[in-house]
Write the C-alpha cells for this entry.
Amino acid sequence: MDTSSAATLYIDGHWSTADSGATFDVTDPSSGKVIGRAADAGAAETERAIAAAAEAFPHWRAQNAYTRATALVRVHELMLERAEELAQLMSLEQGKPLRAARSEVLYGADFLMWFAEEAKRVYGSTIPSPRSNQRLTILRQPVGVVAGITPWNYPVSMITRKVAPAVAAGCTILVKPAEQTPLCAQAVVEIFDEAELPPGVVNLITTSQPAEVGDALLRSRAVRKLTFTGSTEVGKMLAGRATATMKRVSLELGGHAPFIVFEDSDVEHAAKGAALVKFLNTGQACISPNRIYVQRSVIDRFVDVLTDRARRLRPGGGLDESATIGPLIDASALAKMERQVADATQKGARVMTGGERLRGDGLANGYFFAPTVLTEISPAMSIYQEETFGPIAPVIVFDTEDEVVAMANDTDYGLASYVYTNDLARAVRVSEALRFGIVGINDINPTAAAAPFGGTGESGLGREGGAQGIDEYLDVKLVGHVLA
Ligand code: NAP
C-alpha cells in the first residue's frame, strides 16, 4: 500500500484524487509527524459516488446470497493475509499499540465472515391469514444505497461492521471515514477492490470537509440509509436532518459506562479488569468505563491495585513494541483531559497517579497523557457528567445496591456497563435494572461479531453485529395474495 499517494477516493471501482487535487495531511499522533496525505473530496465527488452506488444496486441485489457470501469470504481471507500490514498502518496512523491493533484487525475481519454467513439466513416468513383464500408472506429486501460515516478510534472494525452487513444484505455503500484515519480506510477498501467486488458496490470518500460531504449525503434521495458511528452531538444532528428524505438511520454514539464493583466480588480481579478496559485504546472507546463505582468496604484495596496497574503502563508510539498505552488522537483530546482533571481537582478530587501531559522520553511531540486515577469524585465534576474519551479513571464510593443502580442509570447515555459480583441473585437483579444496551458481569469484553452491539437513550439506535446487525440494512415487505 502506497501511503504517499493521495488517490484515496474509490468511486465506481476506480481510485482517484479529489477533483481540485486538494489533499489533507495525515499525522502520527505519537510524534506529530506527517505520514501521508488523503484526497480532500467535496460535494461533487460525493454525488458521483452516490450515483455509482445507485447504479450498482440493482445488479448487486440481484446476485444470490451465496455469491454475496463468497465475495465477503474472499475479503475476509485477504484481510487475514494483510493483517500485519493493516495493524502496522493502524498503529502509525491512530497510535494504538501494535498488539491492540492486531486484535482490532481480527475483530474487524470477524464481521466479514459473520455476515458472509448471515447473508444466507435472510429468511422471510409466512403468516396465517384470517381469510382462507389469502396468503400473507413477509420478504426482507435490501434498503438500497447506504451512507456509512465512521470514527477514528477503531478505524478498521468500524468500517467492516457497516460494510459487511450492507454488502451481505444486497445493499451498496459509500464510506466516509474520520479525517484522522483515511489511510486505514483506504487499506480496507483496497481489499474489497482486490476481492473484485463489482464497481460501485463499495465506495470511499475521504475529506476534511465533513459538513460538505454530509450535506451531499443527506440531501440525496438515492441514499436510503445512514449508518453513523461517532459522537452523540453529530449523530443527533445528522439523524434530525435525515428525516427530510426519510432515510433509515442507525446510530452508534457516545457512552458513559458505569463499572460497578461490589464487596462480594474478587476485588483484585475487578481492579485488574478495570485497568485493562479503562486504558484500552488510551480510554478512547465508546465502551470505556467512565464512572467506576466501588463499594466502601473494598475501595482502598481496589484503588491500590488500579493505581499500581496504571503506573505500570508504558506509554509509547504505536510501533514501539514495548509500549502498552498509546497517545491521544490530537491536541483537543489532550486539552479535554487537562480540563477534566483541573475541574475535578478544584472541586476536591484526589490524584492517585498521573493527572498531566507526558513530555519526557521522546514523547513531547505526541499527544500523551499519563494514565490517571482520581478518587473523591462527586457529581458536580465534569468528569462525572461527560464522556472522557481518555486515560482517566474516576473512582466513586457507594454503599448500597439500590444507590449504585440509581447512580449508574442517572445519565442520558446507555451503551456499556460492567458489574463485578459473585452473588448470582445480585448479578441477575443488577443486569436487569441497568438501562444499558450491554452489561458485562465479571466480563470486560462482552462484545463479539456474533453479538448485537449498541446502546439505549442518547447512545444510539439500532444494533451492529449479531443476527440483528443485518436487519438494519433490510426492509420488511408484506405480500398479500388472494388466490383466484
Ligand atoms: P465525531 O466527531 O462525531 O466524528 C465521527 C464521524 O462523523 C467522522 O467521520 C466525522 O468526520 C464525521 N462528521 C462530523 N461532522 C459531520 C457532518 N456535519 N456531516 C457528516 N459527517 C460528519 O466523533 P469522533 O470524535 O470521531 O468519535 C468519537 C465518538 O464516537 C465518541 O463519542 C465515541 O463514544 C463514539 N463511538 C461510538 C461507538 C459505538 O459503537 N457506539 C464506537 C466508536 C466510537 P471528521 O473526522 O472529518 O470530523
Notes: The pocket of NAP is lined by residues 149-154, 158, 176-179, 210-211, 214, 229-231, 234, 238, 252-255, 286, 387, 389, 415, 455, 460 (CB under 6 Å).
